[in-house]
Design a protein that fits this description.
heterotrimer, A mainly alpha, B alpha/beta, C mainly alpha, A: MetI-like fold, 12 helices, 0% strand, globular, B: alpha/beta, D-Maltodextrin-Binding Protein, domain 2, five-stranded mixed β-sheet, 19 helices, 13% strand, signal (chain B), Sugar ABC transporter substrate-binding protein (chain B), Bact_solute-bd_prot1 (chain B)
């Protein structure tokens, strides 16, 4: 059995070793590992205000998207759990965004935001006839929000699913006993239900955070990172460096920096989740 | 990082070109009658296959080329179609990994230097110099040089000329009281503004501006204005000159028209811009000359048949002579590790010939190919069917603005595009500040 | 009451964008730019075009084969590893976490070594090659998910089997695997969906209609010189049919599989 694990570790480590080596060498797409440059690339990348800004932007984006997804997801899961009428058909329909390929999600929201005749534009003109065309993806803040919205739409169902499963899996006796003691409504929920599913919510937040840090397809399809740098998220910068500029060394350094950033952001979440699980 | 990049001498455009042409001519005369590399005298390659990497815009052309080449030589062409922003990296990966599935490719000419530095494409100098059938002198000089040369060596043969010219919708202009297209970028701005103010309520705008953050798209819109204002990317000695007054004026012209363009420039890519043009929703669009062929083809959905005109790109500032701008443009290259060099040479020599270029110009459905040779530009059928486009394309004969093509050029183009996108989004300060930053980065990249 | 209202609202939020995509797929270019929301009359031309002009049917077939093949291979790799980790405390949860760590990063730079790996295997630009890459790419996630199921199996079961003299592999194949079938199906479905939706590897590791998958064909449509939004919408919908069908038929499995990883 040990060889099986060993093989997996090697295969998992192979890309990591490649990235680490590329980060300290002059590496182009065609010719990796040309010569050792030490930390020169790291210094170069850290001195690039656009890259640093994209990492900061990535953190803001991931935290924002994860928070919104978790709030909406938990609310929906609880509503599903409470709602008598919601059956498995409802649950299946709610899952659809999550299994839609990200490329299609990007196309879909690009069409929704299309300034000439898209859903948002048409709806707003219906409310305000004669208004100028609305173009969500051409203003920096709105474009950022637009990508975030598509991302929230795509992955909130995952939170719903995880939390809903935790809700139906919890110990019903505890809740019934508390209800007999006179706990009702919000108090019952906040004192009994919420603690029981807190660990799951923490884990769901963690998964959501990581998915948001990795987002690439939506940016690629919807905005190409624009307008300006507004939606240039870390994965897009890495793609640009490696596959547009052929600079694999630089891409590897940004990947490692992103790894550090993701670790720093997720560590507290991991710690909190652990504690919630143990309580 | 920068210190480890090998410095490379940029060719100087004017003088070096003349010298280069002379050298080529001399070599040609020296080798006249000598054995060309097409050792297969009967040109029969039956049963052989050639894998050709192309961007999705060239899919139509690839079908025509495959059919005709098989008829001619018996060799089967296996086209591999990829999105336009992936062709260079796909070729480099294919060669670097040793997969070596690609024999021939038609990448953006700006990536030639990087592909050569990566060892992904062959140095064709010896072959091209020794094969007078290629008829280098017939290539439009302003296209030949950037599309084939890096540091004095030949790495490609021109495939798709791809200069931009200004198309205008005659009906929209007439409705708004303009009887002639603009000659300067100021007039262009004025007309665009008028049309948008009058008709945007009906979904009609003065201009479609390619503004999506890609070197081939937003970069093209800037290059068109840079050409008009008489600027250059690099000077004669290869030093960046991207923050000259001409360049700043060009960037500012782009900023000025941004508010009056088809919403919204930041999202407008080829597809969105061209669709608006064919639907008769925009007064102006800067585009490849082949747009006209498709505009006349109701089969492919054009609603502007006989309602359009085409003219040279406007000028600006002190410059009064219109210059072509080689914005996109694609070259045939041979993959470094192909085992089929001979067949690959046969193919690209044929595909870059004036006969093939002329055929592709007028083929229906439109192939999207523009002239790159004098003979095909002056082709009779082309002149009869599309006299206006032909005239507009003649702009390339008087010299054209080309992107840098040496090592790091793709990165340089990306840097410029990113900064321009910030400028248009109001994040980059003034046009001068934006281009000062680009200049500094370019000095590193081309240092 | 409020709960039901919220459920209805979230259903609308999930479905209205998809319904709009259906609507666009039935419109002509003129109707789209005129801002129609409902196509009158519906124009099925886009669907015909998407089916006949784009090579989409082949891409759907490629996607289905690649994603299912990748999922099966992933399970073959992941089950022994998950079992060993859970049973022998090989590294425990921290090793599972370590195995999972590459998954935390965008896989873009990994394309270069993967490309080389495929060349060594002579599988460049083949559907088999892409399938192998998918199998490796998701093994970590599969181990992570499966480990939770394995730990829930009663230890006595395989201890008893081993006392009977059965070797480790025999216990795994004849005792553990049958017991874990529901979990394997669940994890398999998740991995298959992840494979089906993957874009970046697919676009760089395949070329030509023989191996290109649905997301790649869609991205090529976006790169055309004249974008036909109606056709792109129709093609997108055709492309999602297999995953939506999987969701409808396997919703229950999907739920158990996804929850196993986080709820343990």
């Amino acid at each position: 059995m040990t060889p099986a694990i060993l093989t997996l570790v090697v295969l998992g480590a192979y890309p990591l070793v490649f990235i680490a080596l590329a980060a300290v060498t002059e590496s182009s797409l065609g010719r990796p590992f040309q010569e050792l440059v030490g930390t020169a690339t790291v210094e170069d990348v850290l001195g690039d205000a656009d890259v640093v800004a994209s990492l900061v932007r990535g953190v803001v984006y991931a935290v924002l998207v994860a928070l919104v997804s978790v709030v909406l997801g938990v609310t929906t899961a609880v509503a599903l759990w409470r709602s008598v009428r919601a059956g498995s058909v409802t649950r299946t329909l709610l899952l659809l965004p999550m299994i839609t390929p990200p490329v299609v999600v990007g196309i879909l929201w690009k069409l929704v935001f299309n300034p000439s005749g898209g859903l948002v534009d048409t709806a707003l003109r219906f409310v305000l006839p004669g208004a100028d065309p609305v173009s969500v993806l051409s203003y920096p803040v709105l474009a950022f929000a637009g990508i975030a919205l598509a991302d929230v739409w795509e992955w909130t169902p995952l939170i719903v699913l995880l939390v809903f499963a935790a809700l139906i899996g919890q110990d019903t006796e505890v809740g019934e006993a508390a209800a007999l003691d006179g706990a009702h409504g919000f108090r019952l929920f906040s004192s009994i239900t919420l603690p029981a599913i807190a660990g799951t919510i923490g884990a769901a937040f963690l998964i959501r955070l990581v998915l948001a840090f990795k987002v690439f397809d939506l940016v690629y399809i919807m905005t190409s990172g624009g307008p300006g740098q507004a939606t240039t998220l870390p994965a897009y910068v890495i793609w640009q460096a490696a596959l547009q500029q052929f600079d694999v060394g630089r891409a590897a350094v940004i990947t490692l920096l992103l790894a550090a950033v993701v670790t720093i952001v997720t560590l507290p979440v991991v710690a909190i989740t652990r504690r919630l699980h143990n309580d | 990082m920068t210190s480890t990049r090998s410095p490379f001498g940029r060719r100087s455009r004017g003088a070096a070109f003349v010298a280069g042409a002379a050298a080529v001519a001399m070599t040609l005369s020296a080798c006249a009658g000598g054995a060309a590399s097409g050792a297969n005298a009967d040109g029969d390659f039956s049963g052989e296959e050639l894998t050709v990497l192309l961007i999705s815009s060239h899919e139509g052309a690839s079908e025509w080329l495959s059919t005709e080449f098989e008829k001619k030589t018996g060799a089967k062409i296996n086209p591999v179609i990829v999105p336009y922003d992936e062709i260079g990296s796909k070729l480099a990966l294919d060669q670097q990994s040793g997969a070596n599935t690609i024999d021939v490719a038609a990448p953006w000419y700006v990536s030639l230097g990087d592909l050569a530095a990566d060892g992904a494409i062959q140095d064709l100098t010896e072959w091209v110099d020794g094969d007078d059938d290629i008829d280098v002198d017939d290539f439009i000089p302003s296209i030949w040089e950037p599309y084939s040369q890096v540091d004095g060596k030949t790495y490609g043969l021109p495939f798709d000329g791809d200069t931009h010219v200004l198309f205008y919708n005659t009906e929209i202009l007439a409705r708004n009281g303009f009887d002639a297209p603009p000659a300067t970028w100021d007039e262009y701005l004025e007309q665009t503004k008028t049309i948008t103010e009058n008709e945007s309520a009906n979904g009609v705008y003065g201009a479609a501006i390619f503004g999506q953050k890609s070197p081939l798209i937003l970069g093209a819109s800037f290059a068109n204005r840079l050409a008009g204002f008489g600027g250059e990317f690099l000077d004669e000695s290869g030093e960046p000159t991207i923050n000259t007054p001409e360049a700043v004026a060009a960037a500012q012209a782009l900023v000025d028209v941004n508010d009056y363009a088809l919403p919204t420039p930041a999202e407008t890519d080829f597809g969105a811009g061209n669709s608006a043009w064919f639907a008769g929703k925009v007064g102006f669009i800067e585009n490849w000359t082949d747009l006209g062929v498709r505009s006349q083809d109701p089969e492919s959905g054009s609603e502007v048949v006989d309602q359009w005109g085409v003219t040279f790109l406007p000028t600006g500032g002190d410059n009064t002579a219109s210059r072509a701008s080689l914005v996109a443009g694609f070259s045939w290259v041979i993959a470094a590790n192909t085992q089929k060099t001979e067949l690959a040479q046969e193919f690209i020599e044929w595909a870059a010939s004036s006969e093939v270029n002329a055929k592709l110009l007028t083929e229906l459905p439109p192939t999207g190919i523009d002239p790159n040779r004098i003979l095909s530009l002056e082709d009779e059928t082309y002149g009869t069917e599309f006299p206006e486009i032909q005239e507009a394309n003649r702009a390339t004969l008087d010299g054209a603005l080309a992107w840098p093509t040496g090592e790091n050029s793709t990165e340089a183009a990306q840097v410029l595009t990113d900064e321009l996108a910030k400028l248009l989004a109001g994040e980059g300060g003034t046009a001068q500040e934006t281009l000062d930053r680009v200049q500094a980065e370019w000095e590193d990249l081309f240092g | 009451m409020t709960a039901s209202v919220w459920v209805v609202l979230s259903l609308l939020a999930a479905l209205v964008p998809l319904a709009y995509l259906v609507s666009v797929s039935l419109m002509s270019q003129g109707q789209i730019s005129a801002g129609s929301l409902v196509p009158t009359p519906p124009d099925w031309g886009n669907w015909t075009a998407a089916l006949t002009e784009t090579g989409l049917p082949r891409a759907v077939l490629n996607s289905v084969i690649g994603s299912l093949g990748g999922a099966v291979l992933t399970l073959v790799f992941a089950l022994p590893a998950a079992w060993a980790m859970a049973r022998h405390r090989t590294g425990g949860r921290s090793l599972a976490g370590l195995v999972l760590s590459p998954w935390l990063l965008p896989p873009i730079v990994a394309i270069v070594p993967l490309f080389t790996l495929l060349r060594v295997l002579s599988l460049n630009n083949t559907l088999v090659g892409l399938t192998v890459v998918y199998a490796f790419a998701n093994t970590a996630v599969a181990i992570w998910l499966l480990e939770g199921f394995v730990r829930r199996l009663p230890v006595e079961l395989d201890e008893a089997a081993q006392l009977d003299g059965a070797g480790e592999w025999r216990v795994l194949v004849s005792v553990v695997t049958p017991l874990l079938t529901p979990a394997l199906v669940a994890v398999g479905v998740i991995v298959a969906v992840l494979n089906y939706n993957e874009f970046l590897f697919a676009t760089f590791l395949t070329q030509g209609p023989d191996a290109q998958t649905v997301p790649v064909v869609l991205s090529l449509l976006l790169g055309e010189r004249v974008q036909d939004f109606g056709k792109i919408a129709a093609a997108s919908l055709i492309g999602v049919v297999p995953v939506f069908a999987a969701a409808v038929f396997l919703q229950r499995r999907l739920v158990t599989g996804l929850t196993a990883g986080a709820v343990k």
